[in-house]
Structure formats: structure tokens, C-alpha cells
Fold these 2 entries.
Entry 1:
Amino acid sequence: MATSVPLGTAATYGVLANTAITNTGPTVVAGNLGVSPAGAVTGFPPGTVTGTIHVNDAAAAQAQADLLVGYANALSQPVTGTVATELGGTTLTPGVYTAASGTFSLNGTLTLDAQGNPNAVFIFKMTTTLITGAAGNVNLINQAQSANVFWQVGSSATLGAGSTIRGSILAFTSITATTGATVDGRLLALGAAVTLDSNAVTVPPLSTCQVVVQPVAGPVVVGQPTPVSALVTCNGLPVSGASVTFTGGAVPVSATTNAAGIATGSLTFNTAGPATITATVTAAGSGCACTGVVSAPLPITVTPQPSCLVVIQPVAGPVAVGQPTPVSAVVTCNGLPVVGGSVTFTGGAVPVTATTNAAGVATGTLTFNTSGTATVTATVTAAGTACACTGVASAPLTIPVTPATGPLSLAPACWHVNLPFPIPSVFAATLTATLTPAQAGVTVNFFVYGLPVGSAVTNANGIATLNAGLSILQISASSYTATATVGGVPVQATGALRPCFPPV
């Protein structure tokens, strides 16, 4: 998309040259006229200038410097369309145009259609010349403005007798306007002279100060400071040192524009829903009438502050009657983990309470005495966070509980690194076997990867527990095995073995 070319102080000049401005006949320049750095102005009178004539002074030098910035800006804008060398007889919409030949000619009517947008910009870029014939004419329709038309000429421009050009010609070398040529815009030459002959050159109305609120990055949340910024420009150039007040939040905030014309502040919104942000310039020392200029309002949506969230993690492996089942839940506040929160798990035979770790994870163990469908819920019973976590419950997790299989059953187990010092084994796991019906004093032998890891004796509840050390070979197994002799009959069972998560 084409953007307006910044001309700075050069925007006030109808004619600006580097080496000389010469005129023949009753030329009228509605605007300033200037030459810099070491040229002369001749032919005024009979020509007339409604503005000021600047000859090799500081104002003309600044205008030339600003023209160079504008020329570079036009030169750098990406081309949006390549059209024929001859522009007459064509209609173009806003964009940046060039010709494959590197030059443009105008021997008929070129129509520029802004499509109802008074800020639409048209830029014509050529590496060499612009030449218009006597019938050359630029017609503006649908709110197209001469102030938004720019001709970036790589060498020189020649305007034919009686032709009409609209827009600003930025020529790298020179410009010649022959008898009776009319310019609704500017003739600005960077490198050489401008030659006039009974012409009418009218500077388009200067653009005024503009304030634009920049889009807000990221979500806007109730109660959280939100960075806001606005760009202030005068005739397309940034206004530095301007005071800008942002409104729309709970309290207005003021900031000062930097060298790029950007003021940055922070607003806080106390209510969720639609809101608007507006930036007003309250003071500015620029050539534009900036003070009191207000931006278009920027609509935003303010979202409620996220509350505490508790999520039960899926249960790994089968759940059997009478077997301890590891359960865990994650507690977050505004998406961040809640550390040290007390969480109570319900749904088993007896509720169990655990504390969240640095990752916001609480882990406990529930035992189910009845087969069928069970529902597990995690509730935060205490938490020192910015969120209102206490009393928050998770969505219920439904799990199937299977009957205990055989007289000997094994609970799922997990292995972890044997910290703080991996002695005598690098890895460790807690292996659990249950006799049904319960019988105390029975020796249970445990095996991992076919290798014995130790034995334990069942307690009054028929449960034998072994804290076993494991080798790196044994942790590659996905299960463990236990054997026992009950009533003179050997029995055996297999249970799952996997890495602990979260790590212990």
C-alpha cells in the first residue's frame, strides 16, 4: 500500500530548485519559492509569488534537506503495479506504480480514482524522465487529492505547453514547465534548475497534525496495566516532545513523544467488555496546529481477569479395587503455577490431601473399595495467591474401577532417580502387592526384568511393600512381577512400571 511521502518544510514550496529558478511571463506561484544552495531566481516579476521567495538562505537549505528525505521515501516504497509508459487514457486506483521502460509519458487524460478514500495515495516512480504532451491531463475522482499524488522522477521532468499535472513532482535533476502548463501541486528539483513560462503552480492545502493510536498488543485484562502508544505527525514527519494524554481507562495518563513521534503510556481498565482508547495532544511545539488534536478512538475488548483453575490429570494405567492409585492435579493462577497450595482429592475410600510443587502439581493416592465407575474431584483448601483459589474445585474426573484379579494383585509403580546420592542404586521404585482376602505374614518376592529385587512380608491388610533399587537395564522394563505361596499354592501377578510424572 502506498503511504504519503513526507516533505517536511518543502511541503510549503510551490517551486524549489538547487541551482536556479528562471521564469518568463506572468507565472503565478501560490506558495513559497526557493533555491539552494547556490542558485539564483530570475523572472519575478513579471512572475508573482503569494508566499515567500527564499534565495540560498537557511529556510531553502532546510527545504532541500527535507526534499531529499521525501525523495528517498518515495524511491523506497514497494511497487504495487507495473503499467504502460503512456499513462493517457488509463484509470488507476491508489498504489505505487512504475513502467517497465523506466519512464512515463502523458499525452491524454490519466484518471486517478481514490474510491471514496480522501487519504488514498498515488506514487509514480520512474528511473529516468516524465514527459507530458499538450493534451496531458490528470483527472482526480472519488475524493482523490492532489496532496496525495507524487511523481518520483529519476532524472528530469518536462511539462508540455497547456498540460495539467496534479501532484508533487520530485525530480532528481531538473524540471521544465513550458508555456501555459498548469501544476496543481509542486515542482521540486533536487539537483538542478526549474524553468517556468507563464505557468500556474498551486500548492495543495497542507496536511495538519495527525494523531493515531497504535493497535494494542496482546490481551487487555481487567486490573492489569496495558501499554498504549500513539504516533503524532506534522505533514507526515514525526512530532517530538509533544504531550499526549490517553483516555479510556480508569485514570487518564500523559506521555511525551520521542524522536519518532511516538508517545507510550499505560492504562488500566476496571470493567470487562468493550472499551475505547483515545489520544489527545495537549501541547506541541510544531509547525502544525497540533494542540487539541484528537485521534480516532481505538476500540478494544477488555477480558475478565482469569481466576484460579484446578485440573485433574488423567489417571495412568488400570484402576483396581483395593489398589492404591496415584492421582494428581495442576493448580494455576492466571496461567501460572500455584506453589504450596493444599489440594484434597475425594472419590476414593478416604480423602487425601497433598501440596502443590513448583510446577503447581499436587500428587496423592486414592484407594477404591468398590468396582464400577468412580468420580475423582480435586479441591483447593488453602492457597496464598493473588487469585481466589481457596474453595475452587476441579471438574470431576470419571474413572472405571475394575475388580481385583486373583489372590495377588500389584499396584502400578513408577521409578525415579535415587537422589540426592544414587547409592546403592541409580534408580528406585516402590513396589506394592496385595493379597485378597487379606492375610498377614506372607512373603512376597519381587522381580523386575526377570531379576529379583527383594522381598517383603504382607501386613494385616494383606499389603506387601518393597522400596527397590533398580539398574538402568531394569528401568527399561514396563512391568514388574511378584510371586508368593498362599495356602501351599504358588501365585503370581504383574503390575505396570513406568517413569514417575511429575518427577519425584
Note: The helical segments are 58-76.
Entry 2:
Amino acid sequence: MFNAGDIPSTIGRSFTTTAIANPEKESNNKYFYFQTILMDEDVLVEELRVKDYQLGGRPPSYPPKSEFCGVALALEKPSLFDIEEGHSPTLHPNDIEESYSPPRHLNNLWYDDGSVVLKAGDDFFRVHSSILSQKSSVFATLLLQSQAENTETHKGCPMVTVGDDAEELRQLLLTIYEISYFEDNAQYFVYLRAILRLSTKYEMLRLRDLALQRLKCGVPTTLASFDDPKYHHERAIAQRNVLAVINLAREINCLELLPCAYYYCSRLPTSTIFGGNGGDVLALPDITACILGKEQLLKMQRKTTHPFLYTTPKHCYGFSRKNCGCENDRLLLEYLQRQDVTRPYTFEQFTDWEKIGMCKSCTPSRQYLESQRRVAWAQLPKIFGLESWEKIVA
């Protein structure tokens, strides 16, 4: 993990991203050279002082709204890179919104023949202790203890008070009682979050594994799953809720979710990474990992996965141009000048070569690009200070 003290302060220093053309002096030809200047080699994002940044509450889930140490963070503009939309969020990160919750269910979870009442907050659920005990050894122990202690009753039925969110407990109980409820509602992130939290707490391993596999469709651990177009909707949901996904991964101790979630988070505006969104705020170690990992991702895409967007192929220069089918070197320059190169797009697939004026002889082979993406994906956990995929994937 990274330490907050490893990030130096740059208050009073400004770093900007620019792309400039540097035409050679006019001669009898119309050829020109250009270079793309990003930032200093070792400073690709704002270096931020965070050692005074404090988070209280119950980390990592639901930490309170944070206060930053006085540095104003400007919102970043959306990236305009013409990458396949299959990987990109349907909304710009500035417009992150929570997925809708499952529709209200008619079952009020009050069975007249129930043997125990569960109290969560101000809500009561009369259910069957035999069913709960069958599904969860933790529930079995809890209910046995309550019987031995002559617990209080509610409407003539033994009552057990639990410290769970009432709506999350409702979702868990509905899932236990109705076999189709999981498939009907697994599309909602708030539902999966509730199931993962409580199935972990109550050691309902089969249900936990089922929910985790569904969440991993949107937060994959393999590049093949990341590229699979059938998971576009799941990826979009995960990206819109990425701060909550990171907090959930910490809460249920599922580190395999973090590399891809960190990648999604690194594409957010810096102000969102620090300040949170919609009540979800990251703990300091996760903020630090995202900020420092973002810098490494930007380096990697420049050198490994997308180098063709940072330089013109050598055989397009000078007099060798007559042997090349490229339409115009200016297209690449103009294209780059329109882009936001502060947001990583390290694993996105570039396909529209005509927009940057590249002919077939200049276009990198698909096999080469895929091999570079695989190399980068293998390094993704290390980029964010985690162990290898093999060690963190359960």
C-alpha cells in the first residue's frame, strides 16, 4: 500500500497538458514534424498533498463527507478518445448516478406461522427460524442464543434485534424465501451490494459466491471478460457506482474486485476521487492508490498499449511519405489536440484508424495490440499496490 507521506505537495506549481505542432521551416515540400508534449516525464497527474486528509467513521463503508486541505480541484472534461463504447460508461463520471433499487415487493415478510421476529431499525420481519438456520450457521447460533437468554417478544413471538439496514435485510430475506428473486433483481447494484454484505456477515457462502460472480461481470478479473460485449450493461453500472464498489470490496474482503475498480476510478475527475459522490467517499488508502495508479496507467498507455497516439510512424516522415498511404499527418495532430489526455484509457480498444489518418501499412497489427494489452492487464494489480492476479483472485 502507499503512504500518504509519499505524495509531495505541489501547491503553487501548475502542470498542464498541451499538444503543439512544430512545423519545420517552409521549403519546397509540405511535410512537417510534430511532437505531443504531455507533462514532465515523472509527473502525469496533479501531485496532491494528502497527509492532512482525514476520514473518520466506519471505514471503509460509508465514511463521512471529507474535507480537503485547501487545494482547489478543477473538474476534468470528458475524454474524447474514439474508443469502443463497450468499455466506456454511458455517463460521464461527473454525472455518476446510483442505479435504481429493486421495485417494492408485495411480500411484507410477516408470516403468521413464523417462529421468530427479526428487528432491524424500526422494521419487523416475522420469519421461520428453521429456514434461517438451514441457510446460515451464524443465524442458527444467533437464534439458539436468543432462546437460551429468554429474549423479549414482539406480538407474542420471540424477537431478535440485528444491526443490519432494514432494507438490506429485507432483500436478503426475500432472496431466501423466493427462488427467482435473485435473478429478477441481480441487475441492480444496490441489491447485489446488500446481498454481498449480509451473505458475508451471515456466512451464506453459496449466495455470496453467486452474487460475487454477478458483480464480477461488471468488475472483471480477466481481460477476456473486460472485452466481452455481452457485459456492457454490467460494466456501465459498475463504473457509475465505482466508489461504492471499492468500499464494498474492502468491506467483504474481496481484493480481486479492486484492480478493475481502481482502473474505473482513475478515470474519474480528481475532485470526485477525493470528495466522493452521492454519499460514497473513499478511504485514504484507496484514494492514494487511485491517484498514484492513474499516473502509472498514463505512462503505460503512452509506452505500451497506445503508443501510436503519441507519435507519428517513422516511415510517415519526410521524403519516405511518398511510399506511405496515409492521408494527412495533420489528422493525427488535430485529433490529439481535441483529446483529454489526463484520463486513462489504457485498456480501451482503438479501432477508428481513419480518424487519425493512418493507412494500413502504418496501423499496428491487432495481434500486437492485443499482446500489449495482455501485458498491461497482468500488471494492473501491481500498478495499484496489490499482489498479482494469481494471489488475489479467490
Note: The first strand starts at residue 20 and ends at 21.
